[in-house]
Amino acid sequence: MFEIRVKTSKRVESRDITDEIISAVQGKSGRILHIYTPHTTCGIVINEDADPHVMEDIMEALDRMVPRNYPYTHMEGNADAHIKSILTGCSVTVPFSDEAPALGTWQGIFLMEFDGPRERKVFITLV
């Protein structure tokens, strides 16, 4: 297992972590790559990394679906972040080939921050 740390700078942001993941597994072998974050207010997703507007649209859509200012009962004030984390999920699994994740042409791996800024852990496992 490998670990990378991702620093976020905003309360809500998407961070393309594809290059960090590729660097972490460079020279390694396996057939399945599993990426997981052990936090309850962020997520891991795969989506388009060619046009940054795609991730902006996704973040805005999540904000519309799960608004921050709704009267949630969770007392810490970050219930929306917990809900968004459930919607995105905390892990992805990708085939691994030729020392890299077998992603599509336009795909990237993103850490979705919903309660930043923070430093997040991401665990990478090759099987």
Helix content: 25-40%
Shape: globular
- Report strand order across the widest sheet: 1-8-3-5-6
Mean pLDDT, all residues: 96
Number of strands: 8
The percentage of residues in β strands lies in: 35-45%
Our count of helices gives 3
What name goes with the CATH superfamily? Answer: YjbQ-like
What is the CATH topology assignment? Answer: Jelly Rolls
CATH class category label: Mainly Beta
Please identify the oligomeric state.
single chain
Report Rg: 15 Å
Second rung of CATH, namely the architecture: Sandwich
Order of helices and strands: EEHEEHHEEEE
Structural class: alpha+beta
Largest sheet: 5 strands, antiparallel
- Please, how many domains? 1
Unreliable stretches (pLDDT < 50, length at least 5) are: none
Distance between the termini: 9 Å
Task: Provide a quick synopsis of the model.
The protein has helices at residues 18-25, 52-65, 79-88; strands at 2-7, 13-16, 32-36, 42-48, 91-97, 100-101, 107-113, 119-126. It has 127 residues and is α+β, with helices and mostly antiparallel strands.
